[in-house]
TrEMBL record:
Cellular-component GO terms for this entry: eukaryotic translation initiation factor 4F complex
One Pfam family from the record: IF4E
Organism (species): Hucho hucho
Name the UniProt record assigns to this protein: Eukaryotic translation initiation factor 4eb
Keywords, ordered alphabetically: Initiation factor, Protein biosynthesis, RNA-binding
Length: 233
């Protein structure tokens, strides 16, 4: 089992452990009751709902098409099982891993009803926690970081502030890949800093290293290299 498979499998098992309590029927003496029928595990037919429905998008870097035409919806899911099935497609090459994409392509995971663009009504007053990777990190860290980001989103990792999360994007770029979590309101300091601290910890980024939060309005008017961070953790 690869590291990516192990991470996803662990998440899958945790959700089942939290949501399923399989208690066999017992007699008063504490022994299992013999009903004469074979017990069927609920796991075999029950899907376990996520708190939100999510949509996975792909942006293809085709210079002959408009930005909107390059954006393609891959799949929408709202259960643990459907998320797992989708990620199996990545692991077994039915859908390419981020590290195998060509430069200029993106994957985005957003709550259903929110499109992965600054102009969307739910995004335009928000911003992003941005992780910029070196070229060497594409093979070492990119896929692991992106998987951990997906698990943070679908697992509602940010406690009472998960409602502030809109989605996440991974950008494949020749100068260095980027991963970002997008939030809804850049003025919500408490929520933003909590999300940033949790995200940094989940990625295993050392304390001495900082990550920055940028508003979409600033990013839209400046290059990413000159955009000033509103918050850092």
């Amino acid at each position: 089992m690869t590291v990516l498979q192990d991470h996803a499998s662990y998440f899958f098992q945790i959700v089942f452990h939290q949501e399923i309590n399989l208690n066999p029927q017992h007699t008063e003496g504490g022994e299992e009751a013999d009903t004469g029928q074979e017990m069927v595990s609920p796991e075999s037919y029950i899907k376990h709902p996520l708190q939100n429905k999510w949509s996975l998008w792909f942006f293809k870097n085709d210079k002959t098409k408009t930005w909107q035409a390059n954006l393609c919806l891959i799949s929408t899911f709202d259960t643990v099982e459907d998320f797992w099935a989708l990620y199996q497609n990545f692991l077994y090459n039915h859908i390419q891993l981020s590290s195998n994409l060509i430069s200029g392509c993106d994957y985005s995971l957003f709550k259903d009803g929110i499109e992965p663009m600054w102009e969307d009504e739910r995004n335009k007053r928000g911003g992003r926690w941005l992780i910029t990777l070196s070229k060497q990190q594409r093979r070492q860290d990119l896929d692991r970081f992106w998987l951990e980001t997906l698990l943070c989103l679908v697992g509602e990792t940010f406690d009472g502030y998960s409602d502030e999360v809109c989605g996440a994007v991974v950008n494949i770029r020749s100068k260095g890949d980027k991963i970002a979590i997008w939030t809804a309101d850049f003025d919500n300091r408490e929520a933003i800093t909590h999300i940033g601290r949790v995200y940094k910890e989940r990625l295993g980024i050392p304390m001495k290293m900082t990550i920055g939060y940028q508003s979409h309005s600033d990013t839209a008017t400046k290059s990413s290299s000159t955009t000033k961070n509103k918050f850092v953790v």
